[in-house]
Amino acid sequence: MSEEKNTQSTGKQGAAKGLLVVGIVLLALVVGGLIFWGVSSSRKAAAVQAEQEQLLLDMAQRDLEREYQDLNDEFAQFEDQRRFITDDSVKRELNDKYEAARLQVEKLQQELANQKRKSGAEIAKLRNEISTLRALLKHYVEEIDRLNKENEALRSENKEIKEQNSRLSSQVNETRRRNEVLSERMTLAEKLNVTGLTLTALNKKGKTEKKVTKAVQLMATFTIPQNNSTPVGEKTIYMRIISPSGQLLGSAGTFPFEGGQVEFTARKTIEYAGEEIGGIAIYYDVNTPLIAGDYTVELFADNFRLISRSFNLK
User: Fold this and answer.
1) Which residues face 140 on adjacent strands?
2) What is each CA distance from 44 to 101, 217, 257, 272, in whole angstroms?
3) Is the entire prediction scored with pTM above 0.70?
């Protein structure tokens, strides 16, 4: 009886142990499954997050590349305006700085393009380099704008100076013209005046001859009025008589006039004291046949043409 009880007790204990082992194994399997599921989920989440981060980095890279291209295009648009920077050292410094920054940007772009996985640090470095380009471009624009304003100011100043010079030149020309007129008036004021000029044909007796073809002399008479502006002293008056055919009558010699030598018909020297001298006569002794028509008489003195008049002789 006692042995039977012991056997039953032992059997119960073995069954309990078996159930316990099964329970522990099941629990281990559940825990292991949970751990595996957790690890797997975590890995999937990390992969998704990493993929999202790479997408964001790719977008950031593309945005920066577009921004760089826009900056480079904008910089190229200033090619014509950069000619306003006449200081070679300034232009060289600006170009060198921009070129160095541009090459660094392109190097970083190439490195990123060759990488399957993007680096946030390298994207940030690219962003900083593009910011440097933007600052240089801004400085370029400001420098060109400053130079444009300076050039505009210089153009306005030059225009004003040209206008002032033009006005001054006009004033100088007007003053010169007035001085020339004044000088001419003063010179003309010194010229001997002649009034009452006549030309008369004379016969052998010194009387008036109605027919010029019979004349043995031609007499020109005139008056020199008073002129306080004319220098006093001895004056030689030269007479020229031009025949109807255009020939000079007589050839008594030459006198200087306006830089040349002029032939004359006859001359007379008088003493001029500033007072009126009337009845002055100059004679030409006819030595060639005369014809009826218009005769021109010219009088000269002191390098002036005093008078020129035509007379019709029958």
Assistant:
1) none
2) 41, 145, 121, 134
3) no
